Amino acid sequence: MQRRPCAAKSGNIVVSHKCAAKSGNIVVSHKCAAKSGNIVVSHKCAVVWFLRPRLGDRTQGRIPRDRTWTETGMPPDGRDISHPARRDGDGPDAERGCVASGSCTKAPQRGCVASGSHTKATQRGCVASGSHTKATQRGMVFDVQRFSIHDGPGIRTTVFMKGCPLRCGWCHNPESMSPEPALSFQPERCIGCGQCFRKCPRAAHAMVDERHVLDRGICRACGECATECHAKALEIVGKEMSVGEVLDEVLRDLPFYETSGGGMTLSGGEPLMQIAFAEVLLRSAKEAGLHTCVDTSGSVDYGLFERVRPHVDLFLFDYKETDPERHREYTGVTNERILANLRALHDSGAAIRLRCPLVGGLNDRPDHLEGIARLASELPELEAVEILPYHRLGEGKLARMGLEALARAGAPVPEQRTVDEWVDELERRGVKVAGRGRTSSARPAGS
């Protein structure tokens, strides 16, 4: 194959290195390649690099029509809710500008060069040696928070994923509970333009006593109203992202990770409920040289921990209540499986930090503090125990998401003196405590 000046303009890719074609590796040297948005590779016989799309609003406000979860639905334990690759336009006529030393599937290929097989997903401007897992594996994400300093060591980027098996009344991220995109409604922001009334296909919006009211009983969070709400009273929380899109955002702060010992943390919700997406994202982050953490409730099948453990440097494992029945009252489930998973993960040699949210009037009891100390003594390889004092930053979110019934009204925010007493009691019992607890933080504590 020979270089042609029109190659970049046409969107086709031309391989120009003689030994590259023979070896199955690809080298692209056309100057206009970068301008065309397809390929930027110039190293001899290299495993080629592909450009991922930047984090954007391509899926913002657009809800997949094949979803059946309700806003407060809880999927079966251990079920993978990762979002599969979209498959549109399969067929032999869909191939465009594809040059490969291997076999391409009948997926729409655009500007694609590969030494291996492609998955059946639409690839754009992509070059790979093997399958396009990073581009095709998708998950439901509701935030990518940069410069996080409370989700593991150093400066980190925390990827918040949707879906959680628990229903904690003190949850600081209630928008994560549903595995699907959910509608956030802040009536105080409504300017009365009426666009949502005209746009909603189910007539879920109404004016009652001159107040904008949303009937969540008939709302299906389709997002049509949010697209017209310029006041941001209505917003869809959660969008599908590919592994590549998330990594693009995470790697923007690579210099900060390198100087601080930070990296990427998966949180939620319960990130292991999207196991396929989490596994590929963690493996890709490790391949990029990042330190990785998983913030987990522990209330999933242990097999999910086994799948991600090789790619996780530190587990941030929540421990909310010692008494099983109180645990059920506070979270919706007992703690038996959580404790079994914690012990099994510890025995496997995984690095674990035990995170303990303490809420005044609920689990700040002496017997629970004793239970934390006893558990820590049974797990000698724990990195540390971390106390997460309750705060009220999540209460407003419960109202926005229509989950007011879960709120624990009247729970006090502890003073620093009280937090110090908790820490002193644990240290007196021989527990290694990370920090001294925080009565306020940039990252809400107490999931």
The CATH C-level name of the domain at 138-175 and 240-428 is: Alpha Beta
Sheet with most strands: strand arrangement: 12-6-7-13-14-15-16-17
Output the structural class: alpha/beta
What is the CATH architecture annotation of the domain at 138-175 and 240-428?
Answer: Alpha-Beta Barrel
Oligomer: single chain
In total, how many beta strands?
17
**Treating each run of at least 4 consecutive H or I residues as one helix, how many helices?**
15
Q: What's the alpha carbon Rg, rounded to whole Å?
A: 25 Å
**Mean pLDDT across residues:** 76
Basic shape: globular
Q: Assign the CATH topology of the domain at 138-175 and 240-428.
A: TIM Barrel
Largest pleated sheet? 8 strands, mixed
Low-confidence stretches: 1-78, 84-131, 439-446
CA distance, first residue to last residue: 57 Å
Short description:
With 447 residues, the protein is of the alpha/beta class. It has helices at 7-10, 18-23, 33-36, 133-136, 195-199, 224-228, 243-250, 254-260, 275-287, 302-308, 324-331, 336-347, 366-378, 395-400, 416-428, and strands at residues 99-100, 109-110, 113-114, 123-124, 127-128, 138-148, 156-161, 182-185, 205-208, 211-214, 234-237, 239-242, 263-267, 291-296, 314-318, 352-358, 384-389. The chain contains 15 helices and 17 strands.
Folded structure, characterized:
The protein is 26% helix and 17% strand. The radius of gyration is 25 Å and the shape is globular. Among the domains are: 138-175 and 240-428, TIM Barrel (Alpha-Beta Barrel); 182-237, Alpha-Beta Plaits (2-Layer Sandwich), CATH 3.30.70. Strand 6 and strand 7 (156-161) form a beta hairpin. With 447 residues, it is of the alpha/beta class. It is built from 15 helices and 17 strands. The N and C termini lie far apart (57 Å).
